[in-house]
Every structure is written in structure tokens, then in C-alpha cells.
Amino acid sequence: MTPHQPEQTRRSARPVSPIDDFHAVIPAGGSGTRLWPMSREVRPKFLLDLTGAGRSLLQATYDRVSRLSGPQNVMVVTGGAHEKPIQEQLPSLADTAILTEPSPRDSMAAIGLAAAVLQQRHGDVLLGSFAADHVITDLEGFDAAIREAVTAARQGYVVTIGISATRPSTAFGYIHSGELLDLPGCTSVRSVESFTEKPDASTARNYLSTGEYRWNAGMFISKVSVLLGHLRDQRPDLHAGLMTIAAAWDTDRRESVLAEVWPRLEKIAIDHAVAEPVAQTGGVAVVPGNFGWDDVGDFNSLAALLPSDDNAGSKVVGDHQDVVRVQSAGSVVVPNSGRLVTILGLDDVVVVDTPDALLVTTRARAQQVKDMVTELRDRGLENYL
Amino acid sequence: MTPHQPEQTRRSARPVSPIDDFHAVIPAGGSGTRLWPMSREVRPKFLLDLTGAGRSLLQATYDRVSRLSGPQNVMVVTGGAHEKPIQEQLPSLADTAILTEPSPRDSMAAIGLAAAVLQQRHGDVLLGSFAADHVITDLEGFDAAIREAVTAARQGYVVTIGISATRPSTAFGYIHSGELLDLPGCTSVRSVESFTEKPDASTARNYLSTGEYRWNAGMFISKVSVLLGHLRDQRPDLHAGLMTIAAAWDTDRRESVLAEVWPRLEKIAIDHAVAEPVAQTGGVAVVPGNFGWDDVGDFNSLAALLPSDDNAGSKVVGDHQDVVRVQSAGSVVVPNSGRLVTILGLDDVVVVDTPDALLVTTRARAQQVKDMVTELRDRGLENYL
Question: What ipTM does the predicted assembly reach?
């Protein structure tokens, strides 16, 4: 996967100074079923080098956020199955910087736990939460947005980043932005009117025509006291459970408290638990992010991140010498087993070749790859998942 | 490849008595490039069990013709690269029953050599030539046609079998039959007016509408004296070379004579060298063959020979548990590497999975698979051929 060097790698050379009291939290979860069989339960999307950058998505996220937080202020929240590969991929991460969840409890529990542990360890610091499996292609734009978001967060807001929507995507949620907030040190921060679910195509087109909607990249920047305060107001039981766990985290009571409290924590996304209700009362702000961003949700969006391998729009994730196309345009090929992949007379096809499983589908069906994962599970073929 | 038992295996139980003085010759050549990557240069089509019969096409051909000739009267003509695998697949074949050509010289040299060696060894016996890589699905019909052909051949004709054309195929040559020949012991033998090349679609439809055209399955039955006599008349140099080689074949001069004579032999098909010109002078007869026959020229014709694996017309060559289809109809899948092959939302696709190479194409492109072989050769990827 060496020939193509995407933006973030080439631009990472310029050093920046870390932001005071700023801690980056990386929730590393989700299996990426729409990228099966490239992505697997034991080797999910965030552990993969999808773009040929030479770094996994998790590593690239670490590289990106540690420049802003300092390497010692990065925290990863993950499940037990992925603790070891994460340690291997991020050897400079301290053991205490990985929070291992006993079971998945969605993003509010993951980020809330990180906030509570950070507060326990460091007091009222600033927290920025960044998914482990997204791709960003303009580091300077990212830096500028996060610095402005931190400035707004210091003034008591929960701040999110609204990505400039370059197409009416139906695969992302949107942020409906309101008035400019005239905050000291901020030039482009607006209030958030609301968050939306993934829209249908015509709704998405309407969103873009108003100029008021941006993609929700799931980034949240806040003082831990502010985030935990909102959580206490909105979900007092979840807040109490997380505070109990955090108080025991760095003690020998961690396991016993986790065993007792964790299984009863509410499973809810941070969007529903905090961001949406707090936006209704004016507590959420948005910084426009005009950098390239993608959640690499399926083979189509992965393809969009890669340079063409020929003059017919074909994309290769891997060694392009392992792929031979004849009269086939626009394909997305992942040669990942060392074998030769040949395509004859088929346009816009997706071929993902791995040592134990092969997927053949079309770019138009990219979002439905999860249906194949469901089918395999229904047939008892879990060993391929 | 065990679940499906085609006709020829099930019907082979009934014993028949061999035909007096009848020798079966099996030219085993051709790489089957339209079945790549299933078929390879070192493991061509005739060595493969394409239909899941439990026997390779060569073995099935041997089983079929040895019932008529007797096992001791079967001869295989092949190239040096395939001598060993043929011995392994047909262990009852005597060493003297394999004629190994120093280099490919097309079908006239192969069959003419067999005829000349047979004449040298046995005198004026009858010879029937049968390709090693065709599929026949009605043994009794085949037996009846060959027995009638032998009867006509004893009376001095070169006899071919005209397969009842069940569709206007453009992949086969056709035999244009003429008047019924009122030969003793024969009820359906006709003269051959001419042989045709593969027609275009409208010509093929015209052929079928006349009722006078049948598929040319490349089978020839003749007395060796008759065949060699025609060869002497039509291609005297080729005849002389083959007679020289045959005279030395069972002596210690074989290698030296082959080295001297073989490379100068004319490369020509038996159709052009003998069948077509002799048909012009009334010397060729045709027996209607109303049995199922196919040359398994591509993945489409292979698919036609297999039972459906689901109610959407999908075919599997191999273990159908290795294939999972979701919303995909009419595919032809060859899972031949032990890996899981999954297809999502693609109809009429061909997926051939082997340990070192994968082909993805469509049934409509089945005839063009040879273009992929050409492309690989052009790119210097001969190790995959």
C-alpha cells in the first residue's frame, strides 16, 4: 500500500505547539461491517491502513490529535478485544492512556468515562473527542478549527465541528447552524440549532441549498466540567455510574466497581444524551470545518479518497500490480491476499480479496455490504466476520 | 465436486461389447484459454473435472470410447508437458498407447501420426478420433452413432458425427449434410456437402431453419488406409513425413527421426487437410448424433451442463458451501481455493477463484476470457497462464 501518499502524511511535517490543558479522547469502537471482508470484528476499520498512508486510521488519528494535545495527553477508549492491537499500533501510549470497556455501551459511556477519569486525574481540563476511524485530508484546516473550538469551549460551550458539505450525502448526519456567536477570540463560531439524522436525498439537497447545514463529524470539544454537568442534568443515572467508576479507576477497586456498575449503564450516543438536548437550550456551538473529511463508511467513500489507478476511474487499495482490468471502468479493488485479481468487462464493480474470503459487489451496493455480513451471521459463518 | 452426477457417469454401468478392429484415438491438446484461470497451460481443460463427475474430461472420454474400442485399443496423442499427468489419470493406459509430440503441429499431424502408427502395428484397422475435452451426456446415443459410423467407415467413407443443433450457436462449426447414402447396415448416414466455419448469429439461425446443418463435434471415423490415402492425395509431404516417423516409432530411431522430420511437418487441421476437400468429392459421410454434446468452450457452456444451485439459476463448480449469494441471480462461481466467495447485488456474473488468481467477469463476456489471457501474456504475467 505504498504508492499513494495522501495529504495528511505529506503535511504532517510542520510542527505545532500543543494546546494548554487539552486532552484528546479517541473512542475506538465499531467494526465497520460495510467494509467487510477488509474490516473484521478482530481487526476493525480503525486498525487498517485503508488509504495506503502507511498508518492505520487509528494511528493517523493519533498523529493528528497528539500534535494539538501533546502525545502524553491522548486517551483511547476501546473494548478488551482491541486493547492489544492498539498497544502494538501506538507503542508510545502509556498503559493508563487506554481505557478498556468491559462491554460496548455506546459513545456517551465511552466519552463520559474518559471525561470523568480526566477530571479525576487532572481537574477541569479540556476534552476533544475524535473518532478513531475517520480520514482528514487537510491538517492545517483541522488544526485551525480545533483551536477555535477550544477557545469557544473554554467559554463554556460544548463545541462541535461542522464539516463543509461538498455533496448532498445521505450517509451522514447534519448540523443545523444558527447565529454567529460573538465570542472573544472566535471569528466563525455559531450556535447549533439542531442535529439531524441521516436525511433522504431530497432533504439533503434542501439542506445544502440553505447554506446552513454542515456534516456532523462526531467531534466534540468541551471542558470536562461542562460535559459532565450536562450529562448530570440530562442522564443523572449514567452520570452517577460513570463518576463512581472514575473514582475507582486508578485504584485496586477498578475491576470490582466495573463489574458491578458498568453492565447497568445506559447505552446511548453522546448526540442523543447531550448534544441534541443541550443544543435546544443554546449550549452547543459549531466551528465550520473546511477541511477534507470522510468517515470512510463504505467502499465508495474509500474509493473517493484514493487516486485513480488508470484513466477510467479505477481505484486500488493495495498493490496495483496485483490487479489487471480489461474493458472495466470505475472499479474498486482490494487485492489483499497476494493473488492476482482480474476483471473483464465489468464496470463499477467492487472486488475485495482477502486470504479467507472474497466479496464481489458493485459501487452502487456499497452501503448494503452490511447485508452480506448479516447473511453470513444468519448462516453461522461467524468465523468470517 | 462430488454432489452432481452427470449423465455419462450414471449410465456407464451397462457393459457393451467392443467393436472389432476399432481403435479410439484421443488428441489431448489445447489449453482452454476461455476457461482461465480454472484451465492453465500445465493443467489444461482436458485434465480437469469440470462437471463434478469425479472424472476429468480426459478420463470421461477414455471411459466412453474404451467401451467401444476395448481398453487396450485406446491411444492418446499429446505434448510432452502433459504426458505425465495423463499417465497418472489413465494408469491402465500402456506406455505405447501414448504418442508424445515434440511440439504442437495441429490436428492433422496428431491424428495422422496415430493412423500411421496404428497401420504399422495392426494393419488396416478402423480409427475413431475423439477430442479429450468434450462432454457427452447420453452414452447410449453416442454408442449407436459410433457403431453406425464404423459400419459406414468399413465401406470406405471418412465418417463424422453431426450433432443435433439445439440452438443457433456461433461457437461451433457446422456440417452441411446432403443425400441419404443407402449403405448396407446404415439407416441414417448422409453424404457431407461441406463443413462450415463458426457462423454469425443470423447465418446460424438460417442453418437451423433448413434442417440440413448439424454441429461439427470434430469426431472422425475411418479406416486408417482410407484416411492416410486421402492425406497422401491432399498433403503428400505431410503424409510422407508421418509415414517416415511411424516406421521408426517403435524402434530406437524414433527420437532421431522425430528430431529431423517433425519440425518440418505442415501445421494444419484435419478439417482443412482432409475433411473439407474430400467432402467435395463425396468421400465424407455424416451420422446424426442426437445425444447431448458440448465442447465446454467457456464458462457459459460449462454452466449449461450443471444443475442450478438455487432457484435463481446460479451454478457452482465445486463446493457450493463455499459460495454465498445475496440478491444475485444467474451467477457462475468456481470456488477453487477453499475460500468463501460472496456475491452481493450482481446478476449473471462469473467468479473463478483459484489459489493464485481470481477472475471476475460476466456470462455475456464468457467468450472473451481469452482476451484476459492475452492481456496477461502482454504484461509478462506468464506464470499465471
Answer: 0.86
- Helix A236-249 to helix A224-234 angle (10° resolution) is 140
- Torsion, Cα B88 B89 B94 B98, to 10 degrees, reads -100
pLDDT value at residue A8: 44
Evaluate if pTM is beyond 0.80.
yes
pLDDT digits (tens, 9 = 90+) for A350-377: 999 999 999 999 999 999 999 999 999 9
A interface toward B at CB cutoff 8 Å? 37, 324, 326-327, 339-346, 349, 351, 353, 355-362, 364-365, 368-369, 371-372, 375-376, 379, 381, 384
Condensed to tens digits (0 to 9), the pLDDT of residues A262-282 reads 999 999 999 999 999 999 999
Q: Which residues contact B199 (CB under 8 A, 6 or more apart)?
A: B170, B174, B207
* Band of pLDDT at residue B70, cut at 50, 70 and 90: very high
Taking the mean position of all CA atoms in its chain, how far away is CA A171? 14
> What residues in A contact B353, CB-CB < 8 Å?
358
For chain A, the farthest-separated pair of C-alpha atoms sits apart, in whole angstroms, at: 64
Supply angle C-alpha A24, A10, A42, rounded to 5.
Answer: 55
pLDDT digits (tens, 9 = 90+) for A112-140: 999 999 999 999 999 999 999 999 989 99
Nearest CA in chain A to B348: A346
Put simply, the answer to whether A361 touches B379 (Cβ < 8 Å) is: no
CA distance A16 to B276: 84
Task: In whole angstroms, give the CA distance from residue B376 to residue B378.
Answer: 5
Query: Peptide bond before A37: cis, by omega within 30 degrees of 0?
Result: yes
**Nearest chain B Cα distance for residue A169, angstroms:** 22
| Whether A326 and B381 lie within 8 Å, measured CB to CB | no
Crossing angle of the two packed helices B236-249 and B106-122, in degrees rounded to 10: 50
Question: At B14, which amino acid appears?
Answer: R
- CA distances from residue B97 to B92, B252, B340 in whole angstroms, order as listed: 10, 17, 42
First to last CA, chain A: 23
Tell me the per-residue pLDDT of B108-153, one tens digit each, with 9 for 90 and over: 999 999 999 999 999 999 999 999 999 998 999 999 999 999 999 9
C-alpha cell at position A339: 493473488
**Prior bond of B37 cis (ω within 30°):** yes
For chain A, domains (ranges, CATH) are: 7-294 (3.90.550.10), 307-384 (no CATH)
**Minimal CA separation from A373 to chain B, in Å:** 10
The answer to whether B360 contacts A343, with C-beta atoms less than 8 Å apart, is: yes
What are phi and psi for residue A228, nearest 5 degrees? -70, -30
Residues B81-107 have a mean pLDDT of 96
